[in-house]
Amino acid sequence: MNVLLLGSGGREHAIAWKLSQSKKLGKLFIAPGNAGTATLGINADIALNDFEALAKFVIDENISMVVVGLEDPLVNGITDYFGNKPELQKIRIIGPGKIGATLEGSKEFAKEFMVRHNIPTAAYISITAENINEGFRFLENNNPPFVLKADGLAAGKGVLIIDSLEKAKAELSDMLNGKFGQASKKVVIEEFLQGIEMSAFVLTDGKSYKILPEAKDYKRAGEGDTGLNTGGMGCVSPVPFADNDFLKKVEERVIAPTIAGLQKDKIAYTGFIFFGLMNNNGNPSVIEYNVRLGDPEAEVVLPRLNTDLLELFIAASEQRLNETKIETINQTCVTVMLVSGGYPGNYDKGKEITNIENTIGSLIFHAGTKISGNKVVTNGGRVISVSSLGESLAVASEKSYYNASIIQFDGKYYRKDIGQDLLKYI
Ligand code: AMP
Ligand code: GLY
């Protein structure tokens, strides 16, 4: 089966790597891909929201499945676009339709869904310019820190956590005035949840689901969780504090009611659901839904999967996921993200990356890289995700850190403390 994978991050390199292990895979195309995916398939330079061009490519290349790695095309309706065209209907799309993708595309929609289906989440209020005074009152009646979220997609920047009431009020006004463009014309204000974060993942066909290994992401740029928010600086799976009791609660209180909720609401859904969770004294609350795998979560989740990913996708697209079994590798996976100096602020691109061939014992997933002449050069903020499996968190992280030190490019930076906070739970 020929497959087209959409995206260009470490997540997509990891998905491409896992798909490449399948005997069922024919040709693999990645749009737009990166220097890493180019070693596993054929990169195609097509804009991800040019559905017409993607459809033409799918037909020309005899592609039977499109795997959508990132949220943008899903929120923009790629699955419905293919589903509504007779000549494209037989193409299997891994990723929900526009309504399902709204679980990520609108915080308000996600909140209403969770309330409707009794899924634990922080108390909230939804505010527009019309009811801004209600927003001010909600803030006055709550204690800091205050959590303000742009309703729409804001490239991971739309969540503000603020300590002072005055500043929260000012930010609410700025957001409604377009601080994050159209995305913040509506703002969800919510109660601040205490606890420690982790993420759970399922693949679903809308009826049944398979739970993938859980993970913990490190979002802040600086060691000790300081500095600006990034797309993710590293990740660990499994998560030592997520014991069986907690994971059982996650399934019973969050995962199962979410899938049942999709059915009750008649939302067809084939793809991943990523549950951003807060663990508060052993009880899970949902912080957010994403309608795809995480990045860098995919770079630790997929290496722990001992099951043919393409077979799972085929089963999901035929609503036969209940017939499949997921086998997990009982080792720890740690990934360390090598980033361009200055990220998530301004950074240079085009720096030559060397020494990848001298790494030993890790999976090297490319993120912002491209081929330039006969060189591999940096092409983004997050450049390479170094993932390693090991018998323990300490062993896996030692391998990743060894190889992180080997790979070279001008301005290379990475956090040295990925997973350190988890050692106390082991
Ligand atoms: P989100 O984009 O919704 O995942 O939010 C980004 C980050 O903000 C999350 O990963 C949390 O660290 C934090 N956050 C979001 N909502 C809350 C909340 N209600 N309470 C505490 N922290 C939150
Ligand atoms: N690492 C967080 C995300 O993919 O949304």
Task: Write a structural description.
- The protein has 426 residues and is an alpha+beta fold.
- Among the domains are: 3-95, Rossmann fold (3-Layer(aba) Sandwich), CATH 3.40.50; 124-190, 2-Layer Sandwich (Dna Ligase, domain 1).
- The chain has helices spanning 10-20, 51-60, 71-75, 78-83, 98-105, 107-116, 132-140, 165-176, 244-264, 298-301, 309-317, 393-406, and strands at residues 3-7, 28-32, 42-43, 65-68, 92-94, 124-127, 146-150, 159-162, 187-190, 196-204, 209-217, 220-222, 226-229, 234-237, 271-280, 283-290, 332-340, 363-366, 369-372, 375-378, 382-390, 412-413.
- The strands form 5 sheets. Strands 10, 11, 14, 15, 16, 17, 18, 21 and 22 form a 9-stranded antiparallel sheet that branches. A 5-stranded parallel sheet has the order 3-2-1-4-5. It has a 4-stranded antiparallel sheet with strand order 6-9-7-8, sandwiched between helices.
- A hairpin with a 2-residue loop joins strand 15 (271-280) and strand 16.
- Residues 217, 231-232, 290, 294-295, 297 line the site of glycine.
- Glycine is lined by residues 217, 231-232, 290, 294-295, 297.
Rounded to the nearest angstrom, the distance between the terminal CA atoms is 43 Å
From the coordinates shown, what is the CATH architecture of the domain at 3-95?
A: 3-Layer(aba) Sandwich
Query: What's the story with the biggest beta sheet?
Result: 9 strands, antiparallel
Uncertain regions spanning at least 5 consecutive residues: none
CATH-derived topology of the domain at 3-95: Rossmann fold
Q: What is the SS-derived class?
A: alpha+beta
Give every kind of bound small molecule, once each. adenosine monophosphate, glycine
